[in-house]
Amino acid sequence: MPALPADAAAASARGPATAIAFALEAARRAMQHGAAPDAALGMLFVRALAALIGAALRPAGGDPAYQALVLRTRDAEVDEHVWLAEQAEADRRTVLAGVDAIAHPGKLRSVAPGPQRDALAELHRLASAGAWAALRAAAAQLIAQPSADGKLHATLGLLLQQPALARLERGTALHSLPAVARYRSLCALSGPAAGSEAAHAKGTAAAQRGHRAEAGAMQALQRIAETLQRRAPAAARYRVAGNLLVPAGFPGSASKAKNEWDAALLRTADAGADAPAEIALLVEVKASPEAAVSDVARLVAGLQRLAHAQAEASYAFASADGPVRLLGASLRALRPVGEALPPQVIYCCSAPAEPQVPMLSAASRGVLLSERASLAFAAALAAGEAPDPQRLGPVWQELGSAARLRGVLHQYDTARTVREAMLHPDDLLAAL
To answer: Where do the structural domains in the chain lie, given as residue ranges?
Structure first.
């Protein structure tokens, strides 16, 4: 991880993201020693955050996802649209189930040909097409017609009273509003919609990158194991195990802790079949450094849990290569010192070298921009106002006390910890 600028002036000269990273780390160090951060740091932070928000709102080169979030904050109908869209699929299933109860094609086979059967078939067609307002009108018209079928009228009455139908109608009405259309356009610019073919393709590509990264790491570890085996005493054995799963009932808290470990290089001093193994190297594989930064808290919690093992005991872990017994003393040796990882725990990442390492992580940037004070500031900017950066003061003031901001406050230190523990598979092979 590159060093931060030497002082506030140098940090400010390198842009708002670096200035924020500098202020955060300086504040973290001050709090670590029981001191309050300098007021000048707070001023640097709020001015840099104001500049970051302004850059995100630029029509050209800005952040469309953030612009969509700000638009939702400013416009009640956009917010309602998002809320309705989130439950639209469940509402659609509810209404379709109500229509199918009386107008499913299979049920209509037993209805005599005539106006009522035609009306019910039309009802089903409208529901399938998502024409909710037309569906309501057709159902009301059916109820208005004289009929001896009281059960049909009762079912149609319940359908018209269904809150799901009202929500679907309202969602359709909002869909064509200019602000909602703008919101949807911004969302489209920021990435494929959830559930779409494009989103599926993106997810598939990401999964493939992850699989390639894991395969590269496993190959490197296997070569290391073979090399060590050739040089080891006759009784010793080196091997690789993938996807180690912590056994049920293992001591320590499983809350927010990693429960499955990507790969481990294992060493057994005794060649006996039942001899427990020690962990020579524990490896977590990530497709990008940013993914490792967001993972490290779970990894540290997982190591802390493994360190609850009894030193003299052995524990049966399931793995992709069959059951593995691990020595408790080896697991206890994985205990992190503070936030630092032990030397036998590494991240393995096959991504190409970054041309420039970001001082402010994407996750921290997202959290800061999404704070309530930040969104209010952004809404004022979007409305043509010139808000005072001091309106962002609450974000700075809560850094040391709000749990949701702890990761942001520690973001540079966390990134440094991760990158110091990160190797490319070629680095592992070079160690041979």
So the answer is: 8-56+357-420, 71-191, 200-351
